[in-house]
Amino acid sequence: MNLLEAELHYPFADTLPAPGELMTVAPGVQWLRMPLPFALDHINLWLLDDTGSEGPGHAIVDCGIADATTRGYWEAIFASLQAPVRRVIATHMHPDHIGNAAWLVERWGCPFHCSMTDYAMARGLIAAPSGSGGDAAARHFRLHGLMDAADIERIRHRGDHFANMVPAVPPSFKRLMDDQPITIGHRTWRTIAGWGHAPEHMALWCEALGVLISGDMVLPRISTNVSVWDMEPEADPLGLFLKSLARYEALPADTLVLPSHGKPFTGLHTRIRQLREHHDARLAEVREACAAAPQSAADLLGLLFRRKLDLHQTTFAMGEALAHLHWLWHRGELQRSKDTDGVLRFSAR
Asked: Which residues form the Metallo-beta-lactamase domain (predicted)?
């Protein structure tokens, strides 16, 4: 455990649910974990008691990626249930959260809940690749200094990266909007919209339980990825993310946070402070580097990420570096120009 983690409290210590098993973390709230084929090797999903007028039932929050392994673990979960799944909820549109949504909805004949923006984005990315793979992504990363021709070609040919993990989304959905009360079982949950990590991320807060399903907006061990992608090349996602964090500060200090990665924890206000301090430190490093010489996003990778990165990690690191550059650029601290090699670089004004 690192020093920052030591400031948080993990009420279940190192106890984790095994794949295909459930673990109760609050009344009517069960935790399950699914594997991911990345360096970030798991996602936490949640099963909520959704007993209502139709009888006992369950609500699924987030879905895992659409592969045979994850679906096999879902089937093991379903074999242990004594009631049907009555709805599926996605906090946002990233593949580990929405990948199995269409399969789950079809299997149970139930509705799907998601924000309008993330539902539309997922449909769009299946039809027209963007983000971390495809022609537009390759041009975007080349523009920001990724010069290795082999890497650019690999990115160009990753156009099916999203669709491989999200082959479809449900044909219809129920829209989640900010500060919307949702009755799940006999309890009221309220949505909290967040921006910067995903287009319109929806966390779920239950005051009666003191539980926040934070999705990817507040994670205990790692900082949420905040990236600039090709489809919105001049975005300020870090500004949106930092502004969104303030919305969780209004929740009680003893809130039990159920994150999508890592372990459930308490210490929400402490973690928000840590995240702000983390980004302040990264911005200071970027500010200093740009004062010394013009910097592209690729130029900053060694400064911001002091470990070896594979190509998948590099695309996210590029987006994150650019997010920090854009935060300073949008606030007038940096200026941007294109060099003779066709790369955009940022320098102090």
From this structure: 42-261
* Residues 150 and 87: beta-carbon distance below 8 Å: no
- Residue 201, φ and ψ in degrees, nearest 5: -70, 140
* DSSP β-bridge partners for residue 9: 266
> Which residues make Cβ contacts (< 8 Å) with residue 252, sequence separation at least 6?
210
Compute the distance between CA of residue 57 and CA of residue 50 in angstroms, rounded to an integer: 5
The residue ranges of every structural domain in the chain are 3-348
DSSP state of 248: T
Q: How far is CA 231 from the centre of its chain?
A: 17
Cβ contact 138:156 at 8 Å: yes
Q: How remote is the C-alpha of 45 from its chain's centroid?
A: 13
Instruction: Give backbone dihedrals phi and psi of 85, rounded to 5 degrees, phi first.
Output: -85, 125
d(Cα 209, Cα 186) in Å, to the nearest integer? 12
CATH annotation of 3-348: 3.60.15.10
pLDDT mean values, one per 10 residues, the chain (349 residues)? 85 95 98 93 97 96 97 97 97 98 98 98 85 86 96 89 93 98 97 98 98 98 95 97 97 97 98 97 98 98 92 94 98 97 96
**pLDDT at site 127:** 84
Count of Cβ atoms closer than 10 Å to residue 46 Cβ: 23
